[in-house]
Model the fold of this input.
Amino acid sequence: MAEQLTKEDIRKEANIVYKKTEVLTDNVLHYCPGCGHGTIHRIIAEVIEEMDIQSETIGIAPVGCSVLAYNYFDLDMHEAAHGRAPAVATGIKRLLPNKYVFTYQGDGDLAAIGTAETIHACNRGENITIIFVNNGIYGMTGGQMAPTTLEGMKSSTTPYGRNIKQMGNPLKMTELVAQLPGTYFVTRQAVHTPAYVRKAKKAIKKAIQYQEREKGLSFVEVVSNCNSGWKMTPVQANKWMEENMFPFYPLGDIKVPEDK
Done:
């Protein structure tokens, strides 16, 4: 008769296939099912664990869906007023230059009320990492049009779609900051499939590692969905994102270091 395995036997290191990173807490995520935020949180945490810099990393989260990030990262986290994360990160990094400092921001935060802070931090070349989650909408506060909302895209404040003549053009923040001399690494990624998750994780790892070079700011945009705000199922939202968001916000590196 085959010997029965106990729970202790199963939990032995040799039998572990996957283990949640200890950089994430055990708190249950508040994000909607199908949202990309949870996946992005996980890969950031995995990168920090792999680099063995948990005690040396400081994260800044402002208002928006990311406002409760301090509940999920077992790191030194600092809250910032809406849009002000790059300014707060600047102060922290200048005071503690040997720490790894990152901001985690949505498009309503970074590309609207925080446009000035973002642009000037990038232009100054602050030695920080900005992680920018773009779902083309204000997700937390009711699904309103954001600066990144696509032409014709419906939202709670554009029920007939965004009208360029009335509301202006969508803002491509990543292409904009790539032109500034203070940015060192600028890229756009996604996390809706395993292959894209691996690419995004690699990009985030580079962006954090580049702080060691002290050559400027690294900016990682992650195009994500907002199935609740878009009024779609997660599967529908991912398909809509591929068909509509990616053509306007193409994935890939936009600015890479010349001194590789």
Q: What stands out?
A: Residues 33-255 form a domain with the Rossmann fold fold (CATH 3.40.50.970). The chain has a mean pLDDT of 92. Strands lie at 57-61, 76-79, 100-106, 129-134, 183-190, 217-223, 252-255. The longest helix spans residues 194-209.
